[in-house]
Amino acid sequence: MTMSSPRVPLTRRELMALAGLLQELGRADPNGAAAQTNAAIDLAGELALLRELDDEPTGSPYRNPQPPASPLTGEEWLAIRASAARSLAGREPLRPALRAIQRPEARRAIHAMAYDIATHAHITPGELNWLTWLEEEWSLS
Question: What are the residue boundaries of the structural domains of the chain, listed by start?
Answer without folding.
Answer: 9-53+71-137
